Description:
The protein is α+β, with helices and mostly antiparallel strands. It has one helix at about 1-45; strands at about 55-65, 70-80, 85-90, 95, 105-110, 110-115, 120-130, 140-150, 155-165, 170-180, 185-195. The chain has a 6-stranded antiparallel β-barrel.
Amino acid sequence: MSNHSGxxxxxxxxxxxxxxxxxxxxxxxxxxxxxxxxxxDSALTTRPSSKPDxxxxxFSYVKMSETGQPRYDITGxxxxxxxxxxxxxxxxxxxxxxxxxxxxxxxxSQRARIEDDNSKIHMYGDVNGNRAATAKSENxxxxxxxxxxxxxxxxxxxxxxxxxxxxxSIMTGTGMIANNxxxxxQLLHNVRGTxxxxxx
Length: 200
């Protein structure tokens, strides 16, 4: 009888140890799960949303210079803001330079993306640009499918095919850099065209 009771006591002790170990493992697993869940929740709350947070329809925005003079105007059918990278998607944008010392330039396209604190404007789809003639330059028309506008530098460029009409001269090429401040245009590759001398 004493042997049986000793074995039962030993079995109870072993069972109690196993139950205690399993309970400790269960509590440790629960604690690890809670820590992981709280970390993922905090990461989700601090991660910027990729969804838009507001939109404006039929808008007009004027960028001012440091001296308080208007530099350019952006209008569009719809503007949507994305907080993840503080960018804007614009439908039917029209961008017009407003500086008095330079010939006004108007650019329009199907859509645009504005980023880096409005310092980069990507224009997509049927991009057109018009600049009226001045005493020093002929009227100009630009046509391409993509244009990167750097409004603070008054520069536009693209790596896509371009058609450029200046007065009665027509030039085509792939890739372009246009500096509206200096009234200079540079076509980079596969340049072809018909040049008509400017009448004197």
